[in-house]
């Protein structure tokens, strides 16, 4: 298949395997404040973030950095890049800041990926009085909510279709999905409401 430049047209776990950003301790390791207790009842109190990767039809990798709300399941930040670098992480946090009410100081939980250990990230969270929390090393269950979202994204948005030809196409397809997910996708976890509807319902209660 490689010699003929042939690719499988359906979603493949192998081709879109989980991105591993762990590179030992290169900075600050934050305490695991959640310990798999994912029962926060109020929006904007506990958020989850991670990076995943997608293989494009041009054989390049795309990296997706997202932040979701534990309570409402709303996607508060979603950025795509051809590199899992500082710019990608910074854009993700900046998008989050633009979406959050000014009076909240959420816990932001991640794995121990090197991006989340470095000074530029920890200082940015501190400047906005966000509280950093980290999973135990190599324990994906500690950040299950964002893992669950990425699974939905890859199966609902990308499964059953040919791989996106390039980064621009993936961004367009993903933007449409994120909008649908936030405003139209209903689930039992949000009492039959979309994430945005459930967020407003919960805040008004």
UniProtKB/TrEMBL annotation:
Q: Which NCBIfam families match?
A: transpos_IS3
Outline the extent of the Integrase catalytic domain: 39-203
Q: What is this protein called?
A: Transposase
Question: Which domain of life, per UniProt?
Answer: Bacteria
């Amino acid at each position: 298949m490689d010699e003929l430049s042939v690719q499988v047209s359906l979603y493949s776990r192998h081709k879109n395997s989980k991105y591993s950003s762990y590179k030992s301790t290169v900075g600050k390791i934050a305490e695991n404040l959640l310990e798999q207790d994912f029962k926060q009842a109020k929006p904007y109190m506990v958020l989850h973030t991670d990076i995943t990767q997608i293989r494009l039809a041009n054989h390049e990798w795309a990296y997706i950095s997202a932040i979701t709300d534990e309570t409402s399941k709303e996607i508060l930040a979603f950025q795509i890049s051809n590199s899992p670098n500082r710019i990608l992480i910074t854009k993700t946090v900046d998008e989050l800041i633009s979406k959050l009410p000014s009076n909240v100081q959420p816990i932001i939980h991640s794995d121990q990926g090197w991006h989340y250990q470095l000074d530029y990230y920890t200082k940015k969270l501190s400047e906005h009085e966000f509280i950093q929390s980290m999973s135990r090393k190599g324990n994906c269950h500690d950040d299950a909510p964002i893992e669950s979202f990425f699974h939905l994204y890859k199966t609902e948005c990308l499964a059953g279709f040919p791989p996106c030809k390039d980064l621009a196409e993936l961004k367009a397809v993903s933007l449409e999905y994120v909008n649908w997910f936030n405003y139209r996708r209903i689930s039992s976890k949000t009492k039959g409401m979309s994430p945005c509807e459930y967020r407003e319902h919960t805040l008004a209660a």
